[in-house]
Amino acid sequence: MLKILRTHSWLLVVVLAVIGVSFLLFFNIPAMSGLKNPSVAKIAGKSISLETFRLARQASSIEIALSSGNQPYGENLQQILDQMAWTRLLFLQAAKELHCLVPEEEVVQFIQQLPFLQKEGKYDPAIYQRFVSSFLVPQGITEERFLQVMHEELVIGEVKKVLVAPVEVVSGELDEIYNMTFGAVQVVLFRLKIDPFMQGLQVKPEEIEKEYKSHSKDPDYYTAEKRKAGYVFFSFPPEWQSLKGKELEEAKRKLLEKAEDFSVDTQRLMESSQTAEIEKIAREKNLSYRLTPFFSLDHPPTELEEPEKFAKAVFELSQEKPVSDPIETSKGYYVIVLLGVEKGVLRPFEQVKSIIEEKLKRKKAFEALFEKSTAIEKELNKALKEGKDIEQVARAQGLLIEKPPSFVPVDPPKDLNAAAEIGFACQLLEPSRLSRFLPTPEGGVFIYLQNRFAPALPNEMEIKNKLEKDLLMSRRQAFLEEWVLWRSKQPGYMPPTSLLQTAGIQDK
Fold first, then answer.
1. CB within 8 A of 366, min separation 6: which ones?
2. Which of 176, 286, 315, 399 sits in a 20 to 30 Å window from 141, CA-based?
3. φ and ψ at residue 496, rounded to 5 degrees
């Protein structure tokens, strides 16, 4: 954000007014950069220069960072940024057509109310300054550019409101979904095991060798990747055990701020390749900086607090993001630094031969199982249609019958095999109907829904209100995604080549 945010918010309004004018002219006056940069896309019949698209990608990068708290990274980052940039430009064009404008005062308020700029419930200029120096400056983003991106975000928000205004959830529909989600169900499960299909299967040696050569990047054929990390643990003091409620939350908040400060300082050191200075910074803050040996995800150092959570955080780091945000445990916060990666190596054929053989056998067994399940499904549905005893038919087909106690689909029994998948399927199934074959690691299952009972939950209206809100949000998001696809194929619109190569755009 701009320095004026620290002192004179009225001046920010003036700057925003200038940006607002430039936004109105954005698609009308050809930029000089467009004369020097090739066209990479078209919107409303007008060419989009490489520089314009680059700025849209930059804005998308900021959007990801502000929503997730981290700078974007990952193997698919370029594709994601291209899609977000294209979508952003589509919405900005729609904003021009719909004459969507946002008063400058709202932009000022929006920026000053960003959650990460708050301290004790109020906007804190010091936190903003830290954001400028640790996030904007290292990425070469000016404060003026950040301000423009925030202005565009609000304009795009107004466009989305206009577009999704007709989308709604009707009362009867909500009641139906509520009943199917929270009404207890009584089911009969017909399981088909994979084990009988594995018996007698043979895999030829040449098949095993071919699989090894053609799928040489299969993680199962490699030794486990190992990583080394440095970390500081901000522990909860013993005296906190007597704290409760707001006092405990306030104490944790202050400790979290210290951890965040150390994370920011460490990130800055890593960006300038000053890894050796991390321990010095820690000592100056009276913190203990420790190192781990190289370890795999499945075998983290046992002396750590919540080692599985620690290991998961380490393996989520990358060269682009080598420093974690504070990670909360039951006894404190970790700030972790990725110091080294030992990639797994391809194991010799003889070491993985048995693994490959087992995988190929399971693949063949599942192929036979699915073929069998298709025939069984026809027989079971035929029995239902003719009023026959479906359980008797299931036994004749070699299915194992299981009758769990009644349960609510969103909260199936924890000891039920494939509980989450079965629970979800029950939400979509009507009474006296049979589900499609549902694959599981052990084989698969058919679900016969015998009965569905009325929900018996307290705070029914509260639950319905939340359900309606979530459903409406999901439906609006789906509508906007469809709108982007529809808009992309209109005359005068041409997405960038990188998106035309994807299946979704090609099909359109």
1. 194, 197, 439
2. 315
3. -65, 160
Give the type of residue at 182.
F
d(CA 146, CA 107): 12
What's residue 434's pLDDT? Answer: 96
The rounded distance, in Å, linking the Cα atoms of 467 and 181 is 10
Structure tokens at 272: 């300038």
**Partners of 346 in the β-ladder:** 222
Compute how many other C-beta atoms are within 10 angstroms of the C-beta atom of residue 183.
19
State how far the Cα of 146 lies from the Cα of 116, in Å rounded to an integer. Answer: 15
- What integer is the mean pLDDT of 279-304? 91
User: Quick check: 103 pLDDT over 90?
Assistant: no
Res 173: pLDDT: 84
Q: Residue 101: helix, strand or coil by DSSP? A: coil
Residue-wise pLDDT for 44-99, tens only, equals 999 999 999 999 999 988 888 777 655 545 556 788 889 999 999 999 999 999 99
- CB distance 86 to 499 below 8 Å: yes
Closest by Cα among 438, 414, 416 to 425: 438
At 395, the amino acid letter reads R
Structure tokens belonging to residue 224: 């486990």
Residue 348: CB partners within 8 Å, gap ≥ 6? Answer: none
- Distance from C-alpha of 157 to C-alpha of 97, rounded to nearest angstrom: 15
